[in-house]
């Protein structure tokens, strides 16, 4: 297995009997491939998935600062990812889709009305996207998800513990057919381009803070790469910004335990950075979470320059605004995709 090329490693296999991921064997070793494994290439239909068992955690909300209880439960095929507020009477399901995003200023927020909203969903959505989970019901006891350590690592761990199972109905990815681009201030942009398979991403950031500066990172997404290279990368903030938020009653749960805080050239966290370019890696993690709101896996290349939650959401809206931009890849009679309300 050590002799495999990066291209040969792009495909991963899911063993439905014990939910253990193994690397794909190249053709020369195909004869030794175990039976009953589902090749997940990200192009063409595959069986839908959900978590094998419910799993829960408790953590403080980044802005409320109060303990939030979260449970991820299995869901049936075509349910999709959806949130429900257990602290609200007669709560409705909140679909985790781009067309239900209601705010992107401080995080990605989904909702169905002014009261039934869930904020800071991007880190969990990134883990769900990278782990190939299509269907889940996420119960949350407040207006935001637990911040945990400010990355996706603990959500990724929860999903590993819960396991993953295949369902009876197939689902095909959304294949991007032509370049779709949205632009923001100061040259920022986000773009989707056609790709032969799967989802690859690249991101460049450029911050005036000397501790951050200009950084770039690229990744062809699969579960192993996400876990090894992105999942543990934390959100970040400048010291002046978090102090301003706290003065107006926000970021009450923010601390050095769940965010990187920078001040000029200094990183204030005692343990320093987990990667020298942890900042741009986290922005790529955010993009994976935001693109996970497409309603189906994407077969595309994503390119972002100073892109954040707002541009990422605008990009999905632009993609699905024109049917000529996309198609359902490898559609069969049993393949289904739901990308809009």
From TrEMBL:
The active site is at 309 (proton donor). One of its GO terms (biological process) is lipid A biosynthetic process. Pathway: Glycolipid biosynthesis; lipid IV(A) biosynthesis; lipid IV(A) from (3R)-3-hydroxytetradecanoyl-[acyl-carrier-protein] and UDP-N-acetyl-alpha-D-glucosamine: step 2/6. Keywords: Hydrolase, Lipid A biosynthesis, Lipid biosynthesis, Lipid metabolism, Metal-binding, Zinc. It catalyses: a UDP-3-O-[(3R)-3-hydroxyacyl]-N-acetyl-alpha-D-glucosamine + H2O = a UDP-3-O-[(3R)-3-hydroxyacyl]-alpha-D-glucosamine + acetate. It is an enzyme of class 3 (hydrolase). Its EC number is 3.5.1.108. Belongs to the LpxC family. Pfam families: LpxC. The gene is lpxC. Its cofactor is Zn(2+). GO terms for molecular function: metal ion binding; UDP-3-O-acyl-N-acetylglucosamine deacetylase activity. InterPro entries: Ribosomal_Su5_D2-typ_SF, UDP-acyl_GlcNac_deAcase, UDP-acyl_GlcNac_deAcase_C, UDP-acyl_N-AcGlcN_deAcase_N. It comes from the Bacteria. This is UDP-3-O-acyl-N-acetylglucosamine deacetylase. Zn(2+) binds at residues 123, 282, 286. SUPFAM superfamilies: Ribosomal protein S5 domain 2-like (SSF54211). Catalyzes the hydrolysis of UDP-3-O-myristoyl-N-acetylglucosamine to form UDP-3-O-myristoylglucosamine and acetate, the committed step in lipid A biosynthesis. GO terms for cellular component: membrane.
């Amino acid at each position: 297995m050590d002799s495999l090329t990066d291209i040969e490693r792009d495909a991963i296999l899911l063993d439905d009997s014990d939910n253990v991921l193994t690397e794909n064997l190249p053709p020369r070793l195909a004869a030794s491939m175990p039976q009953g494994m589902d090749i997940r290439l990200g192009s063409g239909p595959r069986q839908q998935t959900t978590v094998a068992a419910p799993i829960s955690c408790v953590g403080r909300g980044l802005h409320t600062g109060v303990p939030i209880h979260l449970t991820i439960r299995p869901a049936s095929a075509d349910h999709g990812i959806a949130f429900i507020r257990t602290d609200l009477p007669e709560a409705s399901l909140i679909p985790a889709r781009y067309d239900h995003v209601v705010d992107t200023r401080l995080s990605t927020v989904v909702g169905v009305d002014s009261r039934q909203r869930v904020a800071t969903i991007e880190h969990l959505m990134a883990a769900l996207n990278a782990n190939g989970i299509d269907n889940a019901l996420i119960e949350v006891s407040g207006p935001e998800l637990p911040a945990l350590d400010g990355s996706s690592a603990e959500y990724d761990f929860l999903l590993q513990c819960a396991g993953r199972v295949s369902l009876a109905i197939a689902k095909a990815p959304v294949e991007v057919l032509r370049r779709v681009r949205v632009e923001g201030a100061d040259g920022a942009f986000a773009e989707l381009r056609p790709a032969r398979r799967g989802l690859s991403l690249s991101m460049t950031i450029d911050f005036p803070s000397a501790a951050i500066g200009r950084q770039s990172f690229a990744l062809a997404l699969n579960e192993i790469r996400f876990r090894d290279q992105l999942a543990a990368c934390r959100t970040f903030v400048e010291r002046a910004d978090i102090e301003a938020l706290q003065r107006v009653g926000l970021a009450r749960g923010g601390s050095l335990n769940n965010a990187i805080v920078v001040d000029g050239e200094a990183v204030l966290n005692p343990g320093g950075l987990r990667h020298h370019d942890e900042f741009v890696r986290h922005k790529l993690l955010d993009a994976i979470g935001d693109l996970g709101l497409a309603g189906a896996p994407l077969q595309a290349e994503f390119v972002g320059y100073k892109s954040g939650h707002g541009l990422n959401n605008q990009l999905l809206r632009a993609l699905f605004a024109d049917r000529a931009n996309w198609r359902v890849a490898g559609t069969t009679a049993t393949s289904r995709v739901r990308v809009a309300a």
